[in-house]
């Protein structure tokens, strides 16, 4: 993906580019849902509809050499970090052409050459390794930053606390991006966390914490650039408390019996990051339709690519266990 | 040839690797100024500094996971887990992360990390400071598992573990740290997956790990005076396992005893017994005997601890039982 050239400030064309990418992620995930319901995709799938501005805002702020670790809700992060829709879709179909060559699936998306060190299906599981990767960058004096994505649910698990403590103690170049969608699977924030302000958890470790509107891609991008600069210049890690909305269920097929229809409708009406960016860019219906057609073609082509991909041989299961 | 204790041999391997290679560093609880709870890393902070001899908080998940993250960036960290019992706290990271990143990524990543840890009974720490949990990790595809029983072995094997591109769980035995042996000036790496025959014999093979290698050697000497010739073999690496060496030994002696300090039930010996019965079935003159701890947590009172864990006399009894079957 093209990088934003002018650091710090975003031109209208940058933002238009962000819009296109967010829409691509949205259409990609809608297609994933459709193909899953059609019985074509194996496994267990989680989409991040509503959280596209976080993926794009953060990943577009990264420099060459920066790395990410993602979560079970990883399609958006993976696309935004540069994996092509073809490679991602092929992975979801379990093909050798997939970004994890059919060994990972939706919850274990990797693209090491592009700096994606893996999505993690254990909540909070990827945080310690991000601290360790950042330690390696510090050891070697490399101007790189390691970035962890995780949700509000992960802030209750030990790996989160131990990793933040260690990262701050060792002043490593890491950025912890908490996508606070206020749901830990089916459990609302008020049932899983005794505090309102999630950034206090980072403050408790003495870590710099910032609060960000995760539905505003420009705000996410700006906050991320600042956080990266802080981490890269040796001032230590940063915690980003990003307020966002999961406009769908926990997994594809989740009947969401735990969530009121009114609340969901309201969130969809008022907090869709695509609507917000579209309004900011003052895009006409024709302009949106044109971009939409373009990304739909890319998504449709990815399904064709994936379906015509190579199935692994059963015995390939015994490869890649040891180096 | 210099004489090194098992403790010094571990330190020697770590220090040599760190002198040779900036990518190697060690991290763990109390390993810097204190020199580690077992004194293994004593003095290393003076030579290598606190960055590379890195004290961590009491935080096993993060220290194991940080080592994994640094390894995925191409470093070769050695993380010390102070007691095997505390591996339980790091197990998510070792089992779900270290063991699986290479696989889940379809071969894009390697995780060249070593987790050093120690355990073993004989000093009455009770139930949470001396367990022998090596078998758990043998059950996980993607991990390699080493259990060294002598100074020369621990040195050569640790070197190989550090330079292996896979995650290795490296077990040391607490009661062996003071054991001394002459070792060559040059460190000779010992390939992972190669058993060692400690003593050749004709009548029974004892396959033993860790402290039980030494108990087996004492038992073998005792048996010798009864006219029974005992071969003692230490697999040294539990995964990968040198099946051929174990099977060949039993094909020669026709009898087998498997011995370890861990609880017998689902212990590593169960796997070895299976390998032997399958690979040497037609050569066996007696059922395979097993020696291990009784099925109890480790008790505190010395008389109870002594009762639970196996000793040379338990190995000797097993040797006598198998010889007593006499092929009938």
Short description, anyone?
The complex is a heterodimer of chains A (323) and B (328). By secondary structure, chain A is an alpha/beta fold.
Can you characterise this structure?
The complex is a heterodimer of chains A (about 325) and B (about 325). Chain A has a single domain, classed as Rossmann fold (3-Layer(aba) Sandwich), CATH 3.40.50. In chain A, helix 9 (about 215-230) links the parallel strand 7 and strand 8. Chain A has helices at about 10-35, 50-60, 75-80, 85-90, 125-140, 160-170, 190, 200-205, 215-230, 260-270, 275-280, 285-305, and strands at about 65-70, 115-120, 145-150, 175-180, 185, 185-190, 210-215, 240-245. Chain A is globular. Chain A has a six-stranded parallel beta sheet, sandwiched between helices. A two-stranded antiparallel sheet of chain A has the order 5-6. Chain A is of the alpha/beta class and about 325 residues long. Chain B has about 325 residues and is an alpha/beta fold. Chain B has two domains: about 5-180, Thiamin diphosphate (ThDP)-binding fold, Pyr/PP domains (Rossmann fold), CATH 3.40.50.970; about 195-325, Rossmann fold (3-Layer(aba) Sandwich), CATH 3.40.50.920. Chain B has twelve helices and 14 strands. In chain B, the strands form three sheets. Chain B has a seven-stranded mixed beta sheet with strand order 3-2-4-5-7-6-12, sandwiched between helices. A five-stranded mixed beta sheet of chain B has the order 9-11-10-13-14, with helices on both faces. In chain B, helix 3 (about 60-70) runs parallel beside helix 4 (about 85-100), helix 8 (about 210-225) crosses helix 12 and helix 9 (about 245-255) crosses helix 10 (about 270-280). The longest helix of chain B has 15 residues, at about 5-20. The mean pLDDT of chain B is about 95.
